[in-house]
Amino acid sequence: MSNKPRSTQRREFLRKSLVVVPAIGLLGPASLSQARSASIAFTEAAYTPRYFTAPEWQFLQAAVDRLIPSNEDGPGALESGVAEFIDREMETAYGHGGLWYMQGPFTPEAPPTLGYQLRFTPRELYRAAIAAVDGWCKKQHNMVFASLAQEMRDEVLHQLEKGQIVLEAVPSQIFFAQLLQNTKEGYFADPMYGGNKQMGSWKMIGFPGARADFADWAEQPGKVYPIGPVSIRGDKS
Amino acid sequence: MIRMKSVDVVIIGFGWTGAIMGIELSDAGVSVLALERGDYQDTSPDWAYPNIADELAYGIRGKLFQPLARETVTVRHAVGDTAVPYRQYGSFLLGNNVGGAGTHWNGQHYRPSPEDLEFRSHIRNRYGERFMPADMQIQDYGVTYDELEPFLEKFEYVCGTSGRAGNLNGRLQEGGNPFEGQRKKEYPNPPVADGYGAKLFADAARTLGYHPFPQPASNASRPYTNPYGARLGPCNLCGYCERFGCFMYSKASPQTTILPILMRRPNFSLRTNSHVTRINLDSTGRRATGVTYIDAKGQQVEQPADLVIVAAFQMHNVRLMLLSGIGRPYDPATGAGVIGKNYAYQMMSSIGVFFDKDVAINPFIGAGAGGVQIVDDFNSDHFDHASHGFIGGAYIFGGQTGGRPIQQLSVPPGTPSWGAAWKRAAKDSYLHSTTVATHGSVMSYRDRYLDLDPTYKDAFGLPLLRITFDWHENEYKMSRFVTDRAKDIVDQMKPKASSLNLRKPGDHYDIRQYQTTHTTGGVIQGNDPSTSALNRFQQSWDVPNVFVTGASAFPQNLGYNPTGLIGGLTYLSAKAIREIYLKRPGPLVQT
Question: What does pTM read for this prediction?
Answer without folding.
Answer: 0.94
